[in-house]
Amino acid sequence: MSDLLHLRFTGLRAPALALARWTALLIGWVWLGAEGQRLGWSLASGVLAVALWWGLRLVLAQRMRHEAPARGTLLTLGGFTAAGAGFVAQADGGPASFWMLMALAVLWAAWSVALDASAITSKRCQCPWVGWPPVLAALITWTVLSVPVDQALTGLPIGLVLLAASLLASATVTAGPTGSRHLPPSRLASGTLPQTSMGLMMGSLWLGSAWCASAGWSAQTVVGLHLLLMAALPGLVRLDAIPRQLPPLVSRALPLTLVLMGALLLYAGQQPAHGLVGMLLLALAWALPVPSNPIATPMLRWAPLGGPLLLLAVGVWSPSLGPQALALAYGGLSALAGLTLMTVLVRHFAHQVRPEQAGTPRKGDASS
Q1: CA atoms in the 13 A half-sphere facing the CB of 349
Q2: pTM
Q3: Which residue pairs from 95-103 have beta carbons closer than 8 angstroms and sit at least 24 positions apart in sequence?
Q4: Are 58 and 305 in contact (CB under 8 A)?
C-alpha cells in the first residue's frame, strides 16, 4: 500500500507543480494589474507593477544558470510573496502602499522564475489528462478576484491561495539536485512576438477595451475570458488537441501569421467580433510550441524586454489617446510580425534555392 501511494504521489508531482506555477502566473498577471490600478493609476495608468513583474521575470530567467532552487528557497519566496500580497491588498492608497506593491512585484518575479526553474529540472508527467492544471489555476484565480469578501478580510483570499501554491510547490520538489539545465532560450527568442502579444493582452486587461465596453460585459466576464484563453489553449496543446509536431517552416511561420492576423484585427476594429477573434488568434500563437532554434545574437536574447516596455508605453499614452493607445500597439505588433514572417520565408526559400544553384554546372565547366 505504501509503495502504491508513493507511486501515485510521484506521478502527481509534475501536475501539482504545474498547478502551483500556473496559479502564481495567472494571479500575477491579473491581481498585480488590478492593484496597480487601485494604488498607482496616476502613474502609467496603473500598469507599472505588472510591467515590472513581467520584465524582471524575463531578466531573471536569462540569469538562471544553476540547478533548480532548494525546497526551502521556494517556500521562503512563496511565503513572503503570499504575506506581501495579503498585506498590500488591505493597504490604503498612498505612496507607501504603491512602493510596497513595487517591492512585491520584484519578489513575485523571483518566485515565479524559481518555480519555472523547478519545472525545467523536473520530469514531465506522461498522463493524458495532465492538461488540467492551467484550467484549475484559472478557475482559482477568477474565484479569488470575483467572490466578494468583507472589507476586513480583503487580503485573506489572495494570501491563502498564494501560500497554498507555495506549500504545494515546495512539497513536489525532489530532494537533492536534479541536474543542471538552463531555461530554454527558444521561448525567449523565436517566441518573442507571440509572448509579447499575449503579455500585452493580459497586462492591459484593466485598462479596458472599447470592444469590451461595447459588448456590455462585466469586469468578471472580461477577466474570465482572458484567463480562459491563457489557460485552456496550452492544455489543449498538451492533450494533443492542437498539433505539437509541425514541419520546421510551419512551426516558425504559423505563430507569426497568427500574431499578424490577430493583432491586425484588434487594431482595425472595435467590434466584439474583432476583439474575440483577435484575442483567440494571439492566444493560439502563444500556446503553440516554439522551435528550439539557438539564439544568434545577444540582441535577440534581450528582445523580449520590448514587451514590458510596450505595455508601459501603452499605459503612459492611454490618458491622452484612450483606447487608441492599445490599438496602435497592436498595429505595431502586426507590422513587426509581418516583417518577421517575410524574413523567415525569404530565408527559407533562399536556403532551398542555394543548394540547387551549387549543384548546377556553370557554362564552360562541362567537358566537351
Answers
A1: 6
A2: 0.86
A3: 97/39, 98/39, 98/40, 98/43, 101/32, 101/35, 101/36, 101/39, 101/40, 101/49, 102/48, 102/49, 102/52
A4: yes
CA 52 from centroid of its chain's CA atoms: 14
Helical spans, DSSP H, in 41-122? 48-63, 71-89, 95-120
CA distance 165 to 137: 10
- In whole angstroms, what is the distance from residue 60 CA to residue 305 CA? 12
- Do the beta carbons of residue 338 and residue 219 sit within 8 Å? no
Distance CA 39, CA 81 (A): 18
- Cα–Cα distance, 266 to 288 (Å, whole number): 20
Could you say which DSSP state residue 92 is in? P
Q: How many angstroms separate the CA atoms of 106 and 238, rounded?
A: 30
What does the pLDDT look like over 14-32, one tens digit per residue?
788 889 999 999 999 999 9
Model pLDDT for residues 286-308, shown as the tens digit of each residue: 988 776 554 445 556 677 889 99
Q: Return d(Cα 262, Cα 276) in angstroms, integer.
A: 9
82-100, pLDDT tens digit by residue?
999 999 999 988 889 999 9
Do the Cβ atoms of 252 and 346 come closer than 8 Å? no
Q: Is the dihedral of CA 246, 250, 252, 258 positive or negative?
A: negative
How crowded is residue 59: how many other Cβ atoms within 10 Å of its Cβ? Answer: 14
Torsion of CA 313, 315, 319, 323, to 10 degrees: 90
Q: What are phi and psi of 217, to 5 degrees?
A: -80, 150
